[in-house]
Amino acid sequence: MMKIWNNLTSREQISLMILALFIGLFLAYVLLVIPLFEKREQSLIALNDEKARYQRIMQMAKSTQGTNEKNSLNDLTSPPIREAATAASRQSGVAISRIQPEADNKVTFWIDKAGTQAIMNWLVLLKTQYGYNPSKVTIQKNTGEESLRGQFEFEGDIS
């Protein structure tokens, strides 16, 4: 190889070195720069998808929150929140794992494993049939499953 290189004129050697430099730059661009830009575009698309998903979740959470006051029609006929939540959970197929009464007429319901639709049905039933809106909602996705867990705090008649 050295013999071939030494037999070339200096002009040919410079031309080959410049060609090798351009090939090296081209390979670096193709193998490093282009994949980085593609990954950046994919990351931006994923970020925008997650932002849109976050906005949908926030809209759903806002629609389930309310003024914590019951409708005037339901004031006379609504059972206490514990009874209403239990009845609504039976209708919607949600299993309440824990009920935690707190001070100041607050009660928190814990749901460990339920589908998104079941939780939303439970909240809608509590609002439409019993007039209860949660004052605080915390929902998380269970790891490795397609189910949710959450804490739902209500204010009102907790007896």
Describe the fold and architecture.
The chain has 5 helices and 4 strands; from the N terminus they run ααααββαββ. A 4-stranded antiparallel beta sheet has the order 1-2-4-3. A hairpin with a 3-residue loop joins β1 and β2. α4 packs across α5. The protein is rod-shaped, with a radius of gyration of 31 Å.
Task: Itemize the secondary structure elements and their pairings.
Blueprint: H1 2-7, H2 10-64, H3 72-77, H4 81-92, E1 96-102, E2 106-114, H5 116-128, E3 136-141, E4 148-155
Antiparallel strand pairs: 1-2, 2-4, 3-4
Rg: 31 Å
For the sheet with most strands, the description reads:
4 strands, antiparallel
Strand content: 15-25%
Distance between the termini: 93 Å
Numbering strands along the chain, what is their spatial order in the largest sheet? Answer: 1-2-4-3
- Helix count equals 5
SS content category? alpha+beta
How many strand segments? 4
